[in-house]
Design brief:
Length: 160
């Protein structure tokens, strides 16, 4: 009976051309992701992104008011570049550069502490005090977030 010999690879040690190309492609994609992340990190958010983030925060405020059975205030400080919830968590904040955002606030007279500083209150019955927050960065279209006073409905879109 003959003994079987182990397969002999001989001169085939190393990587194939396909394997090397796959590795190089993966490295190229990873480096592009790192470069893109670094470039976008320094940029200010667009007017649309600010309006979208603010609308999401307003939705959270509305839900929290109905769930807790207590009024929830969406505090807007355009001078400091901060929009936050009064009873929110640390992540319940929208921050922006007050100088370049071109932000404006329209809300009830009794809810404005000073120009550019005020609040929109969401009530437990689903309504709100109402208002509008508008963002317009230079060279970009204006976007606004509207809070309807009767229904508490939050909407955002391009300002016309």
């Amino acid at each position: 009976m003959r003994a079987r010999s182990e397969p002999h690879w001989g001169d085939e040690a190393g990587f194939t051309l396909i394997e090397m190309m796959v590795v190089l492609a993966v490295i190229a994609m990873a480096s592009l992701g790192v470069v893109a992340y670094g470039v976008n990190r320094d940029r200010e958010p667009t007017s649309r992104a600010l309006a979208q983030s603010t609308a999401l925060l307003a939705h959270r405020a509305s839900q929290a008011a109905v769930t807790r059975g207590l009024p929830v205030r969406l505090r807007v400080d355009l001078e400091a570049g901060v929009i936050s919830l009064d009873a929110g968590k640390k992540q319940d904040v929208v921050r922006f550069s007050a100088d370049s955002a071109g932000a404006r606030l329209a809300t009830g007279r009794g809810l404005v502490a000073s120009p550019g500083v005020g609040e929109i209150v969401f009530l437990p019955d689903g309504s709100a005090t109402g208002g509008e927050i508008r963002f317009q960065r230079q060279g970009q279209p204006a976007y606004r977030v509207r809070i309807h006073w009767l229904t508490g409905a939050v909407s955002y879109g391009e300002a016309k």
